[in-house]
């Protein structure tokens, strides 16, 4: 009895686990079938609405539903055949409306992504399992649509449908599963040769390589979008230019309003195709107008075979004019976009040379962005064209490999030099715009910026008053340049010379050149304050005391004082104990009050926490002094 009780729980758990796995698989299959049915139903609703409103329908409701199934298959890239023609020869239809293709791709993507959402009490599917189950349910509905459309006005060859229909479905489902897992980095295929794997691991699979690939992907995608957008702009301008032929074709195709609505919907579905054709036209290779004619910016070569359709009425005719040649501005903008999106990461604005990418890395990333743009453009050109019939209508649209090669040539030839020039421009040495040319600080090269100390490290946070375009002269070392002297303004003359900020700026630059670090900056600032105050000898004594406290850095502070006052004579440094004497503190405090122009409040001073008082002879070495003699600045 005990053994049966102990084994009953695992058996029930295993059965529940199997039931949960079966329920998860069934749910994923149903998700795929529901996505396919939703897309098919949306197209069927539109076709049935056109059939109901048509005054002279050519077929019954069954024929309209078969046409809807055929259009749904055409949206997946399946080539259809129109068996009833005037010549009696079946005519293929292979031009896929790209806008119609977006609906099934988005539905399959969402189905795979939703299938990987965790359900309470059910096991989680793997990415491969979600792709297989969702695609399986989707393709079951697709096979039924192929069989149902077989007896209609638009049929699909079963073998071609079996080869074409799964491509869009599986790719969209794989994209949805990849997104559901957080877009992870794909591992290197195990079947690759060892040398290829090592080369890829050292280049594209390193953190820097992955970042470069991401930048190249963004720049290439942006350039491709600009190409397509420029092509749409060319098509729109051509439609306006050929407005009368386009209107005549639109009116002749349908006499009733329901037929015109159908023509309008078909034209809207083909707008992305026309944009790709316009991009191919701007790139140079142009597009085919049948098997005997090609339209390029230089003119139309051959005799076009154009059916009556409003979008085709916008095709230019005759030899090319300067207006046609202006279409070359579209790939120019795409090439500059590759450079811009590359340099915005490789060399951000106001970036130092050490922080920016190398010229070689920038050029390679821009070239890779051109390759990505060329690949995307070639794919779109292959999808946007196809046959519209037999004979002279067997070829319509751009040639994919010519369009891709032209996009590669334009983007690489313009993007790489533009990226290098833009990088050089952003890494140029900038000077403050508020100083005259004779008083601007000397520029520093890359070698001066590679030190270990400097104004930044010597006084962190002390240069907050500098203007945004004033970079530190260097990251350290003696190569850091200090700003030169300038004439005091009227307000500065009223308070006794240069202001406190300029004096501290000069002292900070002098302190960064020595080993004193921040202590030297503080000492130099005090020395500058003593000079700025224009006070009596007490102020000068305090400056000398500050120089003596910092040792080697104090001499640099004295050099900064010589830059301000050419008549300054160096003198011997006082002992370090003189810095903490009561008279020296009072003199420093008075110098700062006088230099501030009366802005500093007169409040009782307290001894500084960082500088302990020396033992007082009156207290017997107790180390305290009850007489407040000022504050150590």
What is the N-to-C order of secondary-structure elements (H for helix, E for strand)? HHEEHHEHHHHHHEEEHHHEHHHHHHHH
From the spread of the alpha carbons, the general shape counts as globular
Q: Please state the CA-atom Rg, rounded to the nearest Å.
A: 39 Å
Strand order of the largest sheet: 6-5-4-7
Main beta sheet strand tally, sense and closure: 4 strands, antiparallel
Structural class: mainly alpha
Query: Percentage of helical residues?
Result: 55-70%
Count of distinct strands: 7
Mean pLDDT: 74
- Indicate the low-confidence ranges by residue numbers: 1-11, 430-486, 488-563, 608-612, 616-633
Quaternary state of this entry equals single chain
Determine the N-to-C terminus distance. 88 Å
Query: How many DSSP H or I helices?
Result: 21
**How much strand content do the residues show?**
under 5%
